[in-house]
């Protein structure tokens, strides 16, 4: 996909627009129609009801939907939320998903299935609707909770979990942990002993084996994931109020990064806002660390250019990836890709216009970040030629 010829800014924009992006961390689109309340609750990271005196459309992501998604649904840009949602309801979930996922220009989805999976399209559903390949990313905590729900003695937990993990990941491309939500990233980085795991499992299972928050078991899951050998994704930074943002700084993972480095397993730092510069430092310092600014790009809307520019400051360009973290409304999948393309075009065009980069270098970096880095890390094989994907 390399392009060596010089390109004017319009040419750079065309190349970035046509990249068949690899969305290396995404959730499925909603399988059912959404009421206004449900829609607004899904375009914010807040888990609280939307106050009656406001609307989530009055936000960067809300304005981006009305500006950029409305024309795809055959509405005027900047239509009202009422007009937008009425048109969406007339089209229905299936047609809305087909339109917006198709317009995103994704070449491959890596779909994380560990949260509210019954409400969302799985990898096969995403592939069917979008017409491009989709593979699974397995959430460690969900596998552990399924083992507990099936019935398990404390002393057998580690064996049962490892068996379940290998079975669940026979065709998966990656793993994910939500340690930042469950206990914070400031956990002891060393692998727990078998005795520590059995004791912690006993306490957890005796309490009903529900949501797994024990730091010892979280450590165990992380190290079991590293032993499995697939790229391991960590939620970092911005998320819903269930996360203590103070304990979601990737710098807290430095000890784990160093202990895991000899394994060669890629550690993928997801989203990272507002700690994206810290993630960039870790990606520069350690060969096994990669990062993206996925969730932040969609939610910063018209300010995404600043976030993307900051993500390009210190990390080697081979360590930065694209993701949308789209979840639920397909608008978020589309906006993740559209906003990233627009921000990258503006940032890289500025570097070229200032004489700091050549056009060929700008194309190379956009292609690495948007496509090639993920294909290398997740062993996805070669990309389709540009222009061959569905738009």
Automatic annotation (TrEMBL):
Stretch forming the signal peptide: none
UniProt xrefs under Gene3D superfamilies: Metal-dependent hydrolases
Pfam families: Amidohydro_2
One Gene Ontology term of the molecular function aspect: hydrolase activity
Domain Amidohydrolase-related span(s) in chain numbering: 206-380
PANTHER family per the UniProt record, alphabetical: AMIDOHYDROLASE 2 FAMILY PROTEIN (PTHR43383:SF2), NODULIN 6 (PTHR43383)
Protein name: Amidohydrolase
